[in-house]
Amino acid sequence: MLIKNFYVVFLIFISLYIVHCNADRIKDTMYMTITGSVACYRRMNATHQIGCSSKRGGSVGIIHYCDTETDLDFVLHNGTAGEYIPILPTKLFKTSVANKLFKNKDKISGLILHPNNEELSHFTHDTQCPNALFSSNQSTCPEGGWNNFGTGLLYADIPFPIFYVEDENQIKQMKNCFLKYNKDAFAKQSDRSLCALELKSFMYGTTNTPTCQRRSNMVTNLNPIKVCDPLGDSNVWGTLFPLEKGPENNSQPIKNFKYIILSARLDTTSLFEKTSGAESPITGLVCLLTAAKLLKEMSPKWNPNITTNVLFVLFNGETYDYIGSQRLLYDMERGEFPTTLSINNDILPSIHLDNITLFIELSQLSLGNQIYTHVLNNTPDLNNFIGKFRDYNPEMNVILVPNSLPPSSLHTFIRANNTVQGMVLADHQYEYRNPFYNSIYDNVSNIDYQYQNGSDKIGSDSIQGYVGNIALMLARSLCEQIAGNFCNQSTVPDLNLVDELFHCYLEDPNCKVHKAVQKGTLPKSPLSLYVGVENVRNFLPNIVALTLAWFTGERLGPSSSNCTIQHRNHIYRYYNMSTDIDNLEKMSCYQATVNLSEAVSPAFIIDGYDWSSNKYSSWSESSWNEMGVRMFLKPSKIHERITLAVGSITMILSCIIVYFIHSRSHILFDYPDIDSVPTNC
Amino acid sequence: MTVMELFGCTFLAFGPPFAMFIFTIIQDPVRIIILIAAAFFWLLSLLLSAIVWFIMAPLKTYLVFGVVCSILFQEGFRLLIYRILRKAENGLMKITDDHATLIDNKHILAYVSGLGFGLMSGAFSLCNVLADALGPATMGLQSGNEMFFLISSVHTLCFILLHTFWGIIFFNGFDTGNKIQVGYVLITHLIASCLTLLNTFQIYSATLVPLVCVVLVTGLYAFRVAGGSYISLKLCLHLR
């Protein structure tokens, strides 16, 4: 028995060892994987599907490298060898070209895009009026659209897969393969093996969100398959003053607060599985964080004379029909914001839409000497507040744009209550100044940002200076609004900190600010600014919440292990964080009123929600199994047929011959007649 | 390789053995059992040569070592199955319906076990390639050319046929004590296998032409050994 067991263990070990040996396989010489490709994928709303999907198992097409539109036309008209996959520079990916490709979808089985180091004048695939279906009732989209260059391709149902390949070396490999096998003797292409690509990005979800949600929830076996997931993540919110008063164990909620909301958005999107998002949303986000820090520094400690609080909110998922703000509003309407405690509890006040006196949203910002304040319904209060902007920042040209509201979270609140007073601060009047809105090219060079790494040369003519300036203007005006003359007006923004914040979100997540607020190591590449699906949470909201807590928190003393286990009552959060950005070792204990709230559309949590009501955002993202691109030689049809013919003929002939030999074996093989030989004499 | 190519190559490599199986083996259960047993013995030889290859770590990189070692094991197991079959003859005679032909004509057992050897070696040499190759691509991007699969199939077919012929010659050699026949099998097996080593240089014609010659010569030899002659061939064609 013992020996038997020993053999079993021995065999298992041997087999484990053998499994680890990877021999060279024929496959490795046949295929070349194209690395660093990002795919376009599929999303669905209540009525449509958008984005791309390959065929199940991958779409195969012959490479055609195009430098100009003429090259593309050539292959569309003269291609004879089946389906093609053109490789286009992004510059050529215009509406006209895209329509041409859609029209020839039986000749095109996929598309590869690459940057080609060319200067682009514009590249934005959002619609001209983003989120128009969920805007307030008054039509606010100007003629030509906010996003004038918008092609709307982001919302098109593209009939073939698209991959974006940034790495020039990979493109060069594909180009060389094309030149070697495909380019010469184009007319005779169908007679020979050709360089081809296989694009794999099959999407399980189809049709629309109700359909794919129904399919996801079907319990057909023990291992249910999700075909799509709702988009969603978390909103980040924080307040300037605590929401309660009194000593630690006998605190009372402050119920009569009025609130000013200072908000910005936290997400962007792009046609591919990669985002940049420098101007939208990072400029607004950085400006909000800077303003929050300034406001904390200049405003006095809370006293009963202060009846207005500032609520900082960073909405997530706003790109997809205002997911974050709709959910926040939904929670407010049900008395579940900031917590799900019962209404009129004696721990925390609940915040309602009626408590909000002013809503200020920071939209896209870019270098200039003016700021546009968009106001839908002008009121004396709003005018008064805009007057403060002008007083506190005489150099900045504050321009009022009446009866106008660019796409912003404010739309959600005005849709619910027409009397909400709000304004949107942006760098544009009736047309975005950002030619790369919601695209991969909305990067640092789009906002002329250069990391200064602590140098004191950051001028007011840089994006850092401009954002700091707007933040100062906002903080001073807000402080005066809530605390009158008790504000410390000499506080100025720390431009190095602004610089660091941009660096954190756009270039290196392991920057000084992030190291100051937490001690973990973040990924090396910039954090994704795409909202993602609800069951896979991003790093971004958490790290932004920590940063906001650091900026608006109260310092309680030196850091200790007692800090984070202090009395909590649903509202305070305690953190050990570095005191100073230049000396990360010195730690303090911070108490902050900052938290996350759900940013998943109410459509997915209401039982029996009527999908046709168009009340809430209904975006979901299809799930997929694998994504990738590989290059190989595709055999010609003639070669395939010859192989099959040779094989079949051999088989049939051999059948005939073997039958013939077998039936005549008694004549053919003159085997000895053993019986005639005496074997046992 | 596409589905069409896959079927083409499979038909080419396994079509003739399939025909042999259908017309000459399937009628008699004992033949099927012997075929499977022979295939199993070939597998055992592969296992042993793999273990030796695995243990001899410094020689792993030399393909020649593996090839020669494997040939010796294969021929060793051919001898083993020969001995077993000759011992089992009396038992087999009792269970088969067709004992007259099976036992009287000793070449039938040799042929069946040779085909078993060949089928299993063919399956091992080609199935890996075919399985890897199931997809939209053909060879030639980084090395080789598009004829690779066709050539591989022909190689496989050649080796299946060779194993069958070798089986007949080898068994007869031991039956009659003819050392030349046994030696012939060993030498041609070495030659044919070492020819395939030239495939690394991708000059397929250099291996394929001699290999086909070896198959033809060995086939004729086996034909002679099995009792065939020019006259019997003529007779059999004339009767038609």
Automatic annotation (TrEMBL), chain A:
Segments forming domain Nicastrin small lobe: 39-204
One GO CC annotation: plasma membrane
Top-level division of the source organism's lineage: Eukaryota
Transmembrane residue ranges: 642-661
Pfam families, per database record: Ncstrn_small (PF18266), Nicastrin (PF05450)
Magnesium recorded as keyword: no
Record-level GO BP terms: Notch signaling pathway
SUPFAM superfamilies referenced in this protein's UniProt entry, alphabetically: Zn-dependent exopeptidases (SSF53187)
Keywords: Glycoprotein, Membrane, Notch signaling pathway, Signal, Transmembrane, Transmembrane helix
Compartment(s): Membrane
Leader peptide range in chain numbering: 1-23
Membrane topology: Single-pass type I membrane protein
Family: Belongs to the nicastrin family.
Protein name: Nicastrin
Automatic annotation (TrEMBL), chain B:
Keyword Transmembrane helix among UniProt keywords: yes
Name of the protein in question: Gamma-secretase subunit Aph-1
Membrane protein topology class: Multi-pass membrane protein
GO cellular component, one term: membrane
Keywords assigned: Membrane, Notch signaling pathway, Transmembrane, Transmembrane helix
Entry keyword annotation includes Transmembrane helix: yes
Top-level taxon of the source organism: Eukaryota
Subcellular location: Membrane
Protein's organism: Hypothenemus hampei (Coffee berry borer)
Chief location: membrane
Transmembrane segments: 6-26, 33-56, 62-85, 108-131, 147-171, 183-202, 208-233
Any Pfam family: Aph-1
GO biological process: Notch signaling pathway
